[in-house]
Amino acid sequence: MKIVLLSQRVEVVESYGERRDCLDQNWYRFIMDCGYVPAAAPNHAAVAADIFRAMSPAGLIFTGGNDLVAYGGSAPERDETERRLLEYAMAENIPVLGVCRGMQFIHCFFGGVLQKVEGHAAVRHRLHFKGKEVDVNSYHNYGVTKLQHDFFPLASSGDGVIEAMGHRSRAIMGVMWHPEREEKSRERDIELVQNLIEGGCSKTCAGASVLEQRL
Description:
Blueprint: E1 3-6, E2 9-13, E3 18-22, H1 26-33, E4 37-40, H2 45-55, E5 59-62, H3 76-92, E6 96-99, H4 101-109, E7 115-116, E8 121-129, E9 132-139, E10 142-143, E11 151-156, E12 162-167, E13 172-175, H5 187-204, H6 208-214
């Protein structure tokens, strides 16, 4: 089976004086439901890069958690690790999916900025995604309201926040909902991951011109 490499959040355990990497165990279930073997990358840029090269993963997922340092976050090692991994993935043409913070990171990597948003934390709402109305979870306080020219919108909420995006020429996507937090993996999310990893941008971003006009 193909391997999908996942980034992890940083948790600070004050009583032990430790900075720990951690990943919601639901990610392992979701990636297995997608038909891949999940592997976690540590928040150590050089080690993560060595693991990336040794594993030659079929895909890379930037998971949620931790605000970016530029927006008040306190995990610079994570920002640096994900930057290094994204650079390697682009050099090797490895598909990349950003989830919540992961989409924010990708957006900012390409020169975008985030905006503070209200009503998007610990709620469910409906989005227009790939021509359909879908129900998703939402756990973010920062959002994307304007994309860089490299990207086009795939989903948006009623208040104009862009909830999913695709790169115009690379197999790079971002979504603001958490597929791993659903009680049961949704077929929509499984297909999204499979299409991205197996088909790259051509499958994942099908109908892009129509979506751009609609959103």
